[in-house]
Amino acid sequence: MIAMVLVVGAPYDPEPTLSHGTVLLLWLLKTLGWTALVVWILNRSYATKTPSPVLERLQWASLIPLIIDFYLLDIKTYLLFLPGVSLIPTLIEIVGISLYILYFILLWTLYWWVLNRKGLSEFSLREDVESRLRLIIPFLALYLTLTILGDLIGAIPSNEFQELLKKPFGELISSFFCLILILVFMPPMVRTMWGCVPFPKGPLRSLIENFLKRANVNFKEILIWPLSGGKSCTAAVLGLVPGFRYILFTPCLVKHLLPQEIEAVLSHEVAHVRHRHLLWYIFFLVTFTVIVYRLFDPIETWLISRDLFLEIMTHLQYWPKAFISFLVILPGGISLVLYFRFIMGYFMRNFERQADLSVFKTQGHPWNLINALEKVAILAGNIRNQPNWHHFSIAERVNFLDEVARRPVLRDEYEKKLLINKGLFIGIASLLIIMPSLMPTQSWEDSANNNLTQLYIEQLTSIREQRPELYVIMGQIFTQKKEYAKAIKAYKQALYLAPDNPDILNNIAWIYATADDFEFQKPKEALMFASMAANIKPAGYILDTLAESFFINGYIEKAIATEEEALKKDSSKTDYYQAQLQRFKKAR
Q1: Phi-psi region of 382 (alpha: psi -120 to 50; beta: other; left: phi over 0)
Q2: Mean pLDDT, to the nearest integer, of 8-15?
Q3: Is the same domain home to 426 and 569?
Q4: Whole-prediction pTM
Q5: What are the residues whose beta carbons fall under 8 Å from the beta carbon of 465, sequence distance 6 or more?
């Protein structure tokens, strides 16, 4: 998901800056350098003797060459020229993810090579890489199907149809269709790509079937899952819809666990179905998407409306485009990691613990499950104390089961705590979703538009676009913000370019006459600029400024006479001019 964010957010130029040959050479040098670095890290790591977190860390680190590709080598610009991109725009994203998978394959190959040199590899290179690819290919295939289908639907030449898709009803139908594809077609596709085969008939299969009947859990098939060539010890439930649900066991689990221990593991997997954990995972994904959708625009508008952010944007406009693009997507990537790692990760760990507790209902005690967990820890390479962001360590799971066996009240306390935390999540998520409706977004939008206009004009003026109207707009924006020094500077620059422009003279006079900052209250200068403006263009609004200038200089009668003249010339602002006259007359 983070790789996708990086690819989508990468910048591109209309024309490549480097030749294709140069980019290819740089890419090869970068990849060779990355290969050498990975080999050095693996050789130095003592963890290469057994399955180790070093591989997982290096898989995360594989984002680095992807960042170099899209933010330094500007590969996205070259991908725009691929055949078919005009019809299937997401082809660029597909190629980007394919590059990321290529770095995975390179890493797995190097990892196998280092292990093989130490005599620790149990499989051939092909078997090892193929088994790892099998885990991710189904999800890539589903993504590929959905994106290409979305592009093809978007290419339908019907304005009415496209407008319908953009409406809430159209989006709802599209989302429902995607969900059906995932729920119905994903499990059989995963079964095929993972190479699963039916569980052989016999006493153990009968035991599993009888348990599932007692638990009232419907399933399509019980499968043997040859994960990691059959060496990995685990079980899983695949699929949410009963008619497309599979129960999976790896050969290692079947070989080394006793029937009662298999039943305890099955109890854990069935508990995921009973507690609807898979539905909760979908809910978490949808909630994150909706929160980001609802908050992105208001937060962006609020940031742009801040003067500090405008100053940062002004300085960043001279920085490389790739660096700016990376900074833009960085908050999204961080929020993605934080949400999944700490919020969704918390619930995933505790859903696993909740599933562990189901063994008390099915068997009355946890000892078979504890034995199964201890065996898995040994068979997996002594991982008993190795924690995971979405699982408690086996030691923590065993200790908790043992504690609940001694103090059964802990189970109810735990279930109550988990229920409260679910409620808190729903409450906070709901508040975040409705929050934009309570925010003063309109005032933020006005300020943001002013800031963007100011930034645009500053970009024009920085390239010597010397047009007086640009400086007038800047002066108006600064006046609204009550940044009078900047406003006067902008107006005087405009006046330098157009010395006889009455509106510029009038705007300067108005600041000097009405500023609420004592430093910029300059009655004499106000009268001078207002008189010059009125001599050139005696319009109602300019005469009003002149009247205001007479008034602050103490010329009350002249102020009244000038305001009356403004009233005669401009009937569209009668109420305003009348109010001005009443104010002047009260000061007689």
Answers
A1: left
A2: 81
A3: no
A4: 0.74
A5: none
